[in-house]
Amino acid sequence: MIGAAALVAALAAALTLPLTAGAALPQQAAPQPETTYRVSGADTPEQRTALAARDIDILAAGPDRLEIRTTRAEADQLRAEGLGLTPLADPASLGPVVPRPDKVAEFPAGYTGYTNYAELNTRLAALRASNPSIVSVSNYGRSFLGRTLPLVKISDNVGTDEDEPEVLFTCAQHAREHLTVEMCLRIAERLVANYASSTGSTVNSREIWLMPMLNPDGAEFDIASNRFAFWRKNRQPTAGTSAVGTDPNRNWGYQWGCCGGSSGSPSSDTYRGKSAFSAPETARVFDWVGSRVVGGRQQITSHIDWHTYSELILWPYGYTSADTAPGLDADAAATFQALGRAMAQTNGYTAEQASDLYVTDGGIDDWMWATHGIWSYTFEMYPVSQSQGGFYPRDSVIARETARNDAAVDLFLGYADCPPRITGRTC
Ligand code: 0X9
Ligand code: CA
Ligand code: CA
Ligand code: ZN
């Protein structure tokens, strides 16, 4: 095999050569290297929304903390504007993207405990094969590049659509958030493992759906070089540009692109796409969630969308900083807050409205709630900082950091018949 490292070195050397006047090269600037910084002085949602509006990639945020990834030039500019920026070391195994289409994408050393797309399908098939009466595995369509999008159902009499509250868990909308795939697997495998030993399991009283890898093209691309590419979006090219990728979590169709919480620039990490649901990965969820409206009634009551990192539990709306807005009255807001805070009690995360981070429009949770009345939360998992691995914590943390959410998941499933019950209301 030709040494990939040598090829990378040669490319890197070529890129540092000054452009000579005569060279008729296209006017496209080479992408500048980026560094992660801890930022001080931008602690309000308004300040962070303003940073996002400049297409600065916000990796993590929370009360009193913010981490961004940007170029040195932009960092200097932000310092000149009075912000404090401290560079953070990159996680191990970050590197230039050298896709190897001939190879199955594999995680680098230190991360082989993570599950790639092929392994995910194998794990799901094995779970079904040994528990066929409570597990079914299918798909809800295909990604942009044609990968099937896996769908798991867990319930007693799994082949029958029973009159039980339905709950949906979605993972890995964002490519580099690999820990979330492990979270969906943990939920599925734990529910099945506990089923035999416990009576009154939510497996009997709920129909639990999992979409464990919403964005497989992005997730596979992120590890295709055997190094992490820091990739977030899907892998759909934008017509008329050389840019690739739409941010799925800015592509949902409620208040899409409304409010400065997404980008119209195809090269941005928060590019919202050319229209709502222009990404096949969101369009197929749109179709499938629509198919759960049976007899005029949406069967899914509750949903969690898993992300990393920041250790947060977020509720709608993300598009506005107002606590209440059309479709979200004070009673609904009280339920979101009470259940969100109760779950946070179990895992030590910070619970807040999504827009307390920064404004985002076209997010999955706003769409789930506003158009289907589904009680939808966004969890941002471990860690809180890139100094603990950021998007790429070692595989040794998987067991601990997924089990950390067991109690929150159980609480959530328990209230799925009527989330307002947590505030004393009835359904
Ligand atoms: O920006 C996002 O999409 C989420 N953070 S991440 O670092 N995983 O990309 C936060 C979304 C918050 N907004 C809503 N939940 N609507
Ligand atoms: Ca059932
Ligand atoms: Ca049902
Ligand atoms: Zn995310």
How would you describe this protein?
With 427 residues, the protein is α/β, with parallel strands linked by helices. The chain folds into two domains: 54 residues, Alpha-Beta Plaits; 307 residues, Aminopeptidase, CATH 3.40.630.10. The chain is 30% helix and 19% strand. The chain is built from twelve helices and 14 strands. It has an eight-stranded mixed β-sheet, sandwiched between helices. Helix 4 packs parallel to helix 5 and helix 9 packs antiparallel against helix 12. The chain is globular, with a radius of gyration of 22 Å. The N terminus is likely disordered. One calcium ion binds next to loops.
**Rg calc:** 22 Å
The parts where pLDDT drops under 50 for at least 5 residues are: 1-26
Give the domain tally: 2
Strand content: 15-25%
Q: Tell me, briefly, the overall form.
A: globular
Please outline the major beta sheet. Answer: 8 strands, mixed
Concise overview:
With 427 residues, the chain is of the alpha/beta class.
Lay out the secondary structure.
Elements: H1 4-16, E1 34-40, H2 45-53, E2 57-62, E3 65-71, H3 72-80, E4 84-88, H4 117-130, E5 135-142, E6 148-154, E7 166-171, H5 179-195, H6 202-205, E8 207-211, H7 216-223, H8 280-291, E9 293-294, E10 297-298, E11 300-308, E12 312-315, H9 330-347, E13 350-353, H10 364-372, E14 375-381, H11 398-403, H12 406-414
Parallel strand pairs: 7-8, 7-11, 11-14, 12-13
Antiparallel strand pairs: 1-3, 1-4, 2-3, 5-6, 6-8, 9-10, 12-14
The structure holds N~2~-sulfamoyl-L-arginine, calcium ion (2 copies) and zinc ion.
